[in-house]
Amino acid sequence: MKNFIGTYECKIDDKGRLKVPASLIKQMENFDDKAFVVKRSVFQPCLEVYPMKAWDKLMDKINKLNRFIKKNADFIRMFTAGVKTVELDNAGRLQISKDLTLFASLQKDIVITSAGELFEIWDKEAYEKVISTNEADFASLAEDVMGSFDEE
């Protein structure tokens, strides 16, 4: 499994074009996908960008849900709301649609940060707020999430 690495500060213009840093473009080339999927995050006011293969793997799980159960149908609708496919243009930019730009409150200064097999796009101020937890809070979170994790 391939993973993205790094956090980058960038700019987005008034037309929603995001200049992707060269080192991230190089990482994107390591995924055999030209197209990527951009969607709203479930838990945070940011965007998630998936390589197509990772997106297809996720959708394989979602497509197994029984759509005749209302909460499943509601979840699928909400999860896929606003989903767009994007490709880098010749200038190394991603075009972020207006609805997704508004969802994530993207202003001029943004942060792109790795999140395993996907990366996230944040408004810089919102990102700084989210990661400004104190060490004790993060240590407690790390223990809760990873403390009982056993590799098979």
The percent range for helix content is: 25-40%
Strand order within the widest sheet? 1-7-8-4-3-5
Number of strands: 8
Discrete helix count = 6
| Structural domains: how many | 1
Q: Could you give the order of the helices and strands?
A: EEHEEHHEEHEEHH
Sheet-strand content, in percent, reads 25-35%
Spans of at least 5 consecutive residues with low confidence: none
Q: First CA to last CA: what distance?
A: 17 Å
Structural class designation: alpha+beta
GO molecular function, one term: DNA-binding transcription factor activity
Subcellular location: Cytoplasm, Nucleoid
Subunit structure: Forms oligomers.
Organism: Chryseobacterium piperi
How is this structure best described in words?
Keywords: Cytoplasm, DNA-binding, Repeat, Transcription, Transcription regulation. It comes from Chryseobacterium piperi. Forms oligomers. The protein has 152 residues and is an alpha+beta fold. It has helices at residues 22-29, 52-62, 70-80, 98-103, 124-131, 135-146; strands at residues 7-11, 17-19, 35-40, 47-51, 84-87, 93-95, 109-115, 118-123. It has a single domain (7-147), classed as Transcriptional regulator MraZ domain (Chemotaxis protein chec). The protein is 37% helix and 26% strand. A hairpin with a 2-residue loop joins strand 7 (109-115) and strand 8. The mean pLDDT is 92.
